[in-house]
Amino acid sequence: MIKTQVQIPDALFRRAKEVASQKEWSFAEIVRRGLEYMTQVNPPNRKSGEAWQLPPPQQLGPFLVPESRWTELSHED
Questions:
Q1: What's the pLDDT tens digit per position in 18-51?
Q2: Is residue 58 in a domain?
Q3: CA atoms within 13 A on the CB side of 76
Q4: CA distance 69 to 63
Q5: Cβ distance 30 to 20 under 8 Å?
Q6: Going by C-beta distance under 8 Å and a sequence separation of 6 or more, which residues neighbour residue 8?
Q7: Does 6 fall in a domain?
Q8: Domain total for the chain?
Q9: What is the pLDDT of residues 43-66, one digit of tens each?
Q10: Full-prediction pTM beyond 0.70?
Q11: Is 19 exposed, middle or buried (0-12, 13-18, 19+ CB in 10 A)?
Q12: Which of 61, 64, 42, 60 is nearest to 51 (CA)?
């Protein structure tokens, strides 16, 4: 693991610390997760102006509700 320093605007730092507190995570975990997210939606090898594409699907396991009920459940309040 690499240790580094970054400069963060005060307001952003306070918001990140608040999120960390709410989720009971460390500030470092918030930063790591933010960097993971940004590198997934903005891959380093993507050329400027190149259209964004969805990442490949991931297997999340079986659904808990049968497909026949998806529409019904999506309209519940």
A1: 999 999 999 999 999 999 888 888 776 767 777 7
A2: no
A3: 5
A4: 11
A5: yes
A6: 16
A7: yes
A8: 1
A9: 767 677 777 777 788 777 767 888
A10: no
A11: middle
A12: 42
Residue given tokens 């190149």 in the structure block: 50
3-state secondary structure (DSSP) of residue 43: coil
Query: Quick one: tokens of 40?
Result: 């997934």
What is the span of the domain harbouring residue 19?
1-45
- pLDDT above 70: residue 77: no
Give the whole-angstrom CA distance, residue 18 versus residue 72. Answer: 37
Does 12 fall in a domain?
A: yes
Residue 41 lies inside a defined structural domain of this protein: yes
The CA distance from 65 to 69, in Å, is 7
Place of tokens 């940004």: 38
